[in-house]
Amino acid sequence: MYGSDSGVAISGQPKGISATGKDGELAIATQSGIYVMLNGEVMKKFEGKINYTPTAVTASAAGTEIAVGADVSSLIFTGTATQLHSSHFAEQ
Length: 92
What we know:
By secondary structure, the chain is an all-beta fold. The protein contains no helices and eight strands.
């Protein structure tokens, strides 16, 4: 059997998933939220706090920055999985 029996509820189908260089840490973007997971547990989530629809996500190897892209904008988050905060917003 592949994987485990447990699952994690997130608000929608993933638009992008990126692993950081830290073991077990993932950044996930859905149509309505952004999540940082560590070892299968949601450590930080941004739901309803964003005014755009994420289309892609990538994380730095150190896990200190996460970039989220959208059709007309992008957002950079900095920090750690438990202390993540928005640091820069850029419109195209």
